[in-house]
Write a structure and sequence with these properties.
Elements (H helix, E strand, L loop, with lengths): L4 H5 L2 H11 L9 E2 L17 E13 L4 E12 L3 E7 L4 E7 L2 E2 L1 E5 L2 E5 L9 E10 L3 E3 L5 E7 L14 E5 L19 E9 L4 E4 L2 E7 L5 E11 L6 E4 L2 E6 L5 E6 L4 H8 L2 H12 L6 E7 L15 E3 L4 H9 L7 E3 L6 H17 L5 H10 L29 H18 L1 H14 L3 E3 L1 H12 L4 H8 L8
Parallel strand pairs: 1-4, 2-13, 19-20, 20-21, 22-23
Antiparallel strand pairs: 2-3, 3-9, 4-8, 5-6, 5-9, 7-8, 10-11, 11-12, 12-17, 13-16, 14-17, 15-16, 18-19
Helix pairs in contact: 4-5, 5-6, 6-8, 8-9, 8-11, 9-10
The structure holds arginine and zinc ion (ZN).
Arginine (ARG) binds next to α5.
Length: 482
Amino acid sequence: MELRALTRLAVPAVAALLVLTSGCTGATVQGRPGASGLRDPYFPRAGNGGYDVRHYDLDLGYDPSDGRLAGTAVITARAEQGLSSFNLDLSGLKVEGVRVQGEGARFNRSGNELTVRPAKDLKKGEVFRTEVRYGGRPKPVVDPDGSEEGWITFSDGPDGADGADGRDGAVGVGEPVGSMGWFPGNHHPSDKATYDITLTVPEGYEAVSNGELRSRTPVREGRTAFAWHSPEPMAGYLATAAVGRFEVTTGRTPSGVAVYNAVTPGEAAGSRAILAKLPEVVEWGSGRFGPYPFTTAGSIVLPAESLGYALETQTKPVYPGAPDEELLVHETAHQWFGNAVSPKSWKDMWLNEGFATYAEWLWWEDHGGVSAQRRFEAFLAGDASVDPHAKGPWAAFPPASPPGPEEISDDPVYYRGAMVLQRIRQEVGDAKFFDLLRGWATDHRHGNASTADFTAYAQQRTGHDLKKVWDVWLYGEDRPKA
Ligand code: ARG
Ligand code: ZN
């Protein structure tokens, strides 16, 4: 949704090239190609330059019996420069046709880049619609750290064997770059947009996505279309779509946020008690971090072996098996930290994970467990009796500077990231610290922020010089001693 400095930086080299190649046509060419990446320090090709997406309208049909996805993505964006062509990120799948502003557009594919050449150049400032028809059998995207995202299938329930390879459930997850495995888009967290995701599935299946369920409509051949709407901006990696034989329960938090839980049948009994705590966790977070940033909350619980991790997909985190209390708190805390306030680049991952981990520490502190200070000390001492992660490699690298893309989800990002927050608390005291957490979540709500934004904000908000904390805890290579 926002104007990005990155976009403008990525352009000059490409522009120079275009001047050379288009000078001889004699036509009034005003556009040049948008950049094929946003130069993220760890995922340089993720996202694309030259435009800013406002809204995604995804209409997806999924057939669990053969694992085929058939989709139309309508992407409304604003041109940030004159564009002769622009890119979308898409991995695998077949593109059947592309239209821009209602007119057929040429396109070609290379790796994960789909290049679209509209019939007419787009003018700077123009808001334009791109329609991509695509489909096929989506494949998972493998992360630099070896974990899988994108489109993941799983066996759902006792008669799951009637699906493709016995796997009739499916879920789309995207952190960090898996969303390109199930829909074309500007797949970098810096370009947030609102979403409408409609999923059409056969009888017997439920289809779940982010936000609120607007309608559930019978359509052709006994299928049902589930129309989901996300009114608040969302980073693409937080979009989800899940198809399965889910058991659905709904409710409300004490302050009126609608709750929608979808649970795979095999986890229903084991999830009941923990999911009943979600309203309380949302309420607690609102007290600690400021009002819950979305109109809906909920969960998607998949079979335990379906995914290697839980993910904080916006308004409805995905869990492989029933979460425990700590994981429920962690993914709920991400709704403030990561989802409402999203990282400007993947280097800023500790702003997600350090904060969500610190939220767990606070939860225990507020609910009869050890204090965050005691836990901080246990990490320094490597005392696993207080926290099992204290003996882990939490100090292996500075959280604001993971060595590479394969480390952005490693221990230091989570635990040393959380310790940074406890160090700030030690310096400024509780009143200023909690004011800082709330202020950060509120002032950057529905936007993006970087580590530099945070350090500047923390100093300004608390009135303390925290340079030493940054030098030692955030950026220092050595294991901090205190
Ligand atoms: N953001 C998720 C969480 O902490 C974890 C995602 C792990 N992904 C990965 N590729 N290792 O809640
Ligand atoms: Zn997390």
